[in-house]
Predict the structure.
Amino acid sequence: MTAPLRLTDRKREAIVMAAIAEFRDNGFEVTSMDRIAARAEVSKRTVYNHFPSKEELFAEMLQRLWASATAQPEAIYRPTLPLRDQLRDLLDAKMKTLGDSNFIDLARVAIGATIHSPERAQAWVNRLNEREETFTVWVRGAQQDGRLKAVEPGFAASQIHALLKAFAFWPQVTLNKPLLTPEEQVSVVESALDLFLCWYEVPASCSPA
């Protein structure tokens, strides 16, 4: 049974959620600590006790975004399992994150806040790219086993991530499109598998003995 949050922890969470809502509604530059305090229903001093600046609040949001993105299984290549089954597990986990409204809200706020600060954007993109590097490792393992064609692994990994994000991330973040339904998620994943494996999978008859 999860222990109830202490009052100070509840206030901190309220501040973070208020900041996310304010940044989403009004943008990073316009939002003030006063507005965040009012929305969180705490004093301005309480806000500053937890977060000395808006930058600190933004860093907290990036940390949460990062935690959501990393809450996925490691991309470990398994030579005894069909490629499609392995890839489906990885893409299903990725789609679960992309289908989380909290993740999309955080991403929308983060992207909006980074428009006027390339440094913020670069730091965020770099961290997300680090997470997707594990998929690159999976591609490399399948190539070494002779089951995927020779191609730069990072390029192939970016391609399959892009196949998902084109339907389940960028439309929601930039155009406020609704999250995909479970049926739509399955369709996007299966289509991505078809495209990726049709192009990159080495036919069994061509694989090393």
About this structure: The first helix runs from residue 7 to 26.
